[in-house]
Amino acid sequence: MKHTTRKATRHVNQNEGLIFEKSSAGKAAWKLPPLDVPEVDTSKLLGASERKDLGSMPEVSEIEIIRHFTRLSTWNYAIDLGMYPLGSCTMKYNPRVNEAVARVEGIANGHPYQPEKISQGALHIIKTLSECLIEITGMDAITMQPAAGAHGEMTGLLMVRAHHQSKGNARKKILIPDSAHGTNPATAAMVNYAVENLKSDSRGMVDIGALEAQMNDDIAALMLTNPNTLGVFEQDIHNIADILHAKGGLLYMDGANMNALVGKARPGDFGVDLMHLNLHKTFSTPHGGGGPGSGPVAVKKALEPFLPKPVIMTKSDGTLGFDYNRPQSVGRVRAFYGNFGMFVRALAYIQANGPDGLRQTTEDAVLNANYIRKGLEGTYDLPYATPTMHEVVFSDKLQAKKGVRTMDIAKRLIDYGFHPYTTAFPLIVPGALMIEPTESESKEEMDLFVEAMKSIAEEVEEDPKTVLDAPHSTRVSRLDETAAARKPVLRWKPAG
Amino acid sequence: MLKTIGLRSVDDLFAPIPAEYRLTRDLKIPRQMAESEIVDFFRQRSRENGDGYTSFLGAGAYFHYRPVIIDSLISRGEFLTAYTPYQAEISQGTLQSIFEFQTMICELTGMEVANASMYDGSTAAAEAVMMAVRLTGRRSVVIARSLHPEYREVLATYATHQGMPLSVAGFGDDGRVNLKELESSITPETACILVQSPNFFGTIEDVATIGEIAHKHGAMLVVSIAEAVSLGIIEPPRQADVIAMEAQSFGVPLGFGGPYCGVIATREKYVRQMPGRLVGQTVDKQGKRGFVLTLATREQHIRREKATSNICTNQALVALMVNIFMTVYGKVGLKELAKQNLAKTAYAAGQFAKQGKVLFGAAPRFNEFVVQTSEDPSAINSRLLGHKMVGGLPLKKFYPEFGNAALWCCTELTTRSAIDTAVGLVAESERSVRSAKEEVEEVAR
């Protein structure tokens, strides 16, 4: 092969079956202490409710379990292995001190219902983080309850609805730009709002004329990602807010891209009424293969009465507690208080950075995205020339002429030792390549990435088949997703 | 890098933000701290947070032993710092482990398919109910009052704007849902019945009969399971159409309420209305077995406002903890573990019954029970705190009709001596209340 990569080398890794295929009777990795109370007759206690058999649950030894999961782990790509430029997902380094402090005994083992008197540590953490996030966003109040970004969106729209209802009319629709995340329209549907599409202009920004024409008394809110999914800051943001506010609408900001603003600009200062944050994006809590996240929602004063309950409060004796007496609250969106373990990690991240560090983090993230843009401009089509913030979106227009699409380039990038960028999103760019390096990447790592992307572009010209058949170096080649969906096999079953 | 880009200063990068919105001051947040200071800060918070207390709290969050290999394995960067496995070729580790998770959840719940996780047990229950609404085309829901009160609150929030009327069925003297009341609450518009088993009081519901009632009226049965360890010794609710589970008991730290691990399991024929991610088995171009995210046409990134749910990020790493826990205990260990929970609880309930009144003795229970006392349980708990113990959860807020009552929980980690001490401290008050009463009565005589 003419094209090689400096980033990665093929390396033997272990085969491993399903855990059930390794199981054999009598093996065990557990040991209980001797029972210090009388044994019980389970059939007498439980009668018909007694379970006799646990089917094909595995029986394996500890070393087998360690090897099983360690082997599986080596089949994954991860930030710890290299650049993970998934646009919109913000795959930044996950500091290990976060993990260490989340495991300190009293923090890991605190019960959500233990008396407030002995919960002051946890409450202090929630309060401190809340204050930091309020300051960072320029808002007035916050709920930490939502478990992830989409859950935060739902909570936000519940508050939007409650706000309008308190004024006598819940309104009917949510405006959503065509560049938005899929969660936005799905969320609107969950809160029983109709979705009205709002188109983007030639700059990739909200079309102000369209907004003015579409805004009326039926519109409850606009859900806007800013910077948007093209990595473009909505320069008319205050104008947008004014148009909405003039007709009683609210401006909801999807904070998925808040990592482009922290320490540099505050949504509360540019007209946003409420917004969610993704602690697993901007505030470095690990993605863990798909979760857990945390999606706090910060709001302006006028929306504070509608926050989910309970909210944290300082009591008359100066200690912290929960306030459940919130007559206008939208209610509860989750049991207990939210993904507390993620609060601990996010606060540790804020502490490790401080004001200077957070600002520099944002600057580096934007600098890195612009560096990638410069490196790949010309090689890949840039559909919007508007200035880039934290991520840059190219299209596969030039490569499509050879029949190579964004997903093929992405798969080939795997052979070069990188995780692909986000493919085919946002929807307003046909064949999108959405690249977000984050602040975590060094110039050296980004140079390797640019080199790989350029090399693939050459391959597309010289030998498109290599790209179309990629990846060539992984444990499995391209998997048959159609077959998987047509006849779903969603669990292992014992033979026979 | 700036030179390469053709800019003079970092500030030029932020030119797209109108000048009046650019922050020209420092954020007012704590100053930058050294790692040693950060660790020290959280150690101090830990000391203020019940560290070293023996607890009898359950109520949807359970203190079980977590095998050490859980943290060794989930701390591997390849699991910890990977994204959602959309690029299957370099995510086989995560995908195969989710496939195993789905399999074990099916095996334990008696269902045919399980998803890759939901936020927690409360939101899983709400989403399961919405699934039943879509499947039946009916809109109203009957909920057992013995369902976790906070789960009921969450469902109420989700239901408000879906035009889903909720009615509540009470419980009988045995702590189980009142079947007559349940049946009379069902209307032709009832999409499903939602019960929890073991329920909020630790009592095991008669799921078979509840299932018959639901199905007789063309409604579905949704069962919420908050204490996963019960599945080791309690027959799973096989009559359910959808199970919404909280798997926190399987190796997930209490963590002051989260992150936990919700799961939805159901019948194969309902899978296309299921929310959340699913992993399926397939083959690659060479015919080699591999795993992918599948049936994505249910999900928000494809279907947008027509999706089954807006869920995107789930609880993957927590599901991995659960997966490892299930693998460690396996077929025999889970049963033995559940038996120890049962034995400790039977002993504790027996001891408490000698001093106060233990409610709902007529039906089987797992690892929780309600103790009624003469004294306010908050006062009892203040006394227990002095002995570094946290007593049962006072129920006045949720079930005022019980008067002075608390929900106690024992797990395999609760020692006999802790139980004896707690019972002794409760008895102290019962004795003093009794003698005070006698005194009053004597004076009256």
Written overview of the protein:
Chain A folds into two domains: 98-350, Type I PLP-dependent aspartate aminotransferase-like (Major domain) (Aspartate Aminotransferase, domain 2, 3-Layer(aba) Sandwich); 361-482, Aspartate Aminotransferase, domain 1. Helices cover 35% and strands 10% of the residues of chain A. Chain A has helices spanning 19-22, 42-46, 62-73, 96-102, 105-108, 120-137, 149-166, 183-190, 208-214, 237-246, 340-376, 397-400, 406-415, 443-462, 464-468, 481-486; strands at residues 141-143, 173-177, 194-198, 219-225, 250-255, 274-277, 297-299, 311-314, 320-323, 392-395, 422-423, 432-435. A seven-stranded mixed β-sheet of chain A has the order 1-7-6-5-4-2-3, with helices on both faces. In chain A, helix 4 runs antiparallel to helix 11, helix 6 (120-137) runs parallel beside helix 11 (340-376) and helix 11 packs across helix 14. The longest helix of chain A is centred in the C-terminal third of the chain and has 37 residues, at 340-376. Chain A is globular and about 75 Å long. The model of chain A has no long low-confidence stretch (mean pLDDT 96). Chain B folds into two domains: 69-326, 3-Layer(aba) Sandwich (Aspartate Aminotransferase, domain 2); 331-444, Aspartate Aminotransferase, domain 1, CATH 3.90.1150.10. Chain B is built from 14 helices and 15 strands. Chain B has helices at 2-5, 10-13, 35-47, 69-74, 77-80, 92-109, 121-136, 149-160, 179-185, 207-216, 300-303, 316-353, 377-386, 416-444; strands at 54-55, 113-114, 140-144, 166-169, 190-196, 220-225, 242-246, 262-266, 279-283, 289-293, 357-358, 368-372, 389-390, 393-394, 405-409. In chain B, the strands form four sheets. A seven-stranded mixed β-sheet of chain B has the order 2-8-7-6-5-3-4, with helices on both faces. Chain B has a four-stranded antiparallel β-sheet with strand order 11-12-15-14, covered by helices on one side. Chain B is globular, with a radius of gyration of 25 Å. In chain B, 60% of the residues are buried. The interface between A and B is large, with 192 and 190 residues.
